[in-house]
Amino acid sequence: xxxxxxxxxxxxxxxxxxxxxxxxxxxxxxxxxxxxxxxxxxxxxxxxxxxxxxxxxxxxxxxxxxxxxxxxxxxxxx
Length: 78
Prior knowledge:
By secondary structure, this protein is α+β, with helices and mostly antiparallel strands. The chain has one domain: Glutaredoxin. Helix content is 38%, strand content 27%. It has helices at residues 13-28, 41-46, 70-77, and strands at residues 3-8, 33-38, 54-57, 60-64. It has a 4-stranded mixed sheet. Helix 1 packs across helix 3 (70-77). It is globular.
């Protein structure tokens, strides 16, 4: 079953870092997932997030306000 991953952020350096970490983990571990980058502030507000970047997996906010390690992302996806 494919995971739906959303990265919430307006395009700041931390948001770009999180996007790269998530993409690397998905690619390196051959995880079936779609990655959406959400930059629209109104969309981000729907998740009740005040600090970006945020990582949303299957509509659950898992990380906010920091860039996770690859290991951390892998654990969240497994």
